[in-house]
Amino acid sequence: MVTIVTTSGILLRSMNYRETSKIFRFYTLDHGLVSLIAKGIRRKRPSGSEGLESFARGEVTFYRKRKGNLHLLKEFALKKSARGLGKSIFRFTAASVLGEIMLVQGTSERNPDVYSRLEIGFGRIEDSSDRLIISVLLREAWSLVSTLGYRPEISRCIKCGLNMVEDGIGRFDLEAGGILCSVCGKNNDGPRMGPLARAQLMGFFNLENDEEPIMGNKGHLLLLRDFISYHVVEKGVLNSFDFLNVLLESELKGVVGSSESS
Predict the structure, then answer these.
(1) Residue ranges in 106-238 assigned as alpha helix (H)
(2) Positive or negative, the Cα torsion across 93, 18, 56, 108?
């Protein structure tokens, strides 16, 4: 038995299936992460399938089975194209980080806060300049991770409870998911984190001040990658992070450019 469902959705990934079909993975407002098959779409694109590109947002209608995880796509009504993300390889890769987080952590449960955070995140990355993409990604990724329930503790030492306002340089314990004061972290080899870095990280959670690039972006990006590796993807690494690091190294060498005019 199937029911016809229509809900807001964001297309995170698509893949070819057999000779003529494709499978689309959406994060939806009402049904969380869903996998939908579009039969024959590669042979002849049917009406109602326009705009099916990565990170597009719209209304998705599908036949939902009572059992099983693969449902049948009926149609997709595009509301917001993701073409702006394709104007810069940095922008598209930054969006891919958010998409991969949801592909790993998304469930079939309804979570409007996560959906809203993801939708806003894609929009802010799309609207950002190349100069600010990494700063915007840090804010949006940390905010998404926090909304998913993985916010690290940085205001107090996770071992002794010391208010970190009273301390100088601490150590971030990746496995425990929080900051250690200078005494408790003496023998810890986690990243060093002083008052400025802690304030910047708190700003990411609160989505503050995205008008200027953040000092120490590379260190913050590595911390985000390693935290996600420990707590979100269970000691795995998101492919988009690896590619983003390659892009950043290439940019330093003057290899990567934007498709936008300067």
Answers:
(1) 112-127, 133-147, 195-205, 217-231
(2) negative
Q: Which domains does the chain have, with CATH numbers?
A: 2-80 (2.40.50.140), 84-152+189-252 (1.20.1440)
Task: Determine phi and psi for 242, rounding to 5 degrees.
Answer: -60, -45
Q: How far apart are CA 102 and CA 110, in angstroms?
A: 13
Phi-psi region of 48 (alpha: psi -120 to 50; beta: other; left: phi over 0): left
What confidence tens digit (pLDDT) does each residue in 44-68 have? 766 556 678 999 999 999 999 988 8
Cα separation of 180 and 177, whole Å?
Answer: 10
Q: Taking the model in full, what pTM does it have? A: 0.88
Handedness of CA 113, 116, 120, 123 (dihedral sign): positive
Q: Is 108 helix (H, G, I), strand (E, B) or coil?
A: coil
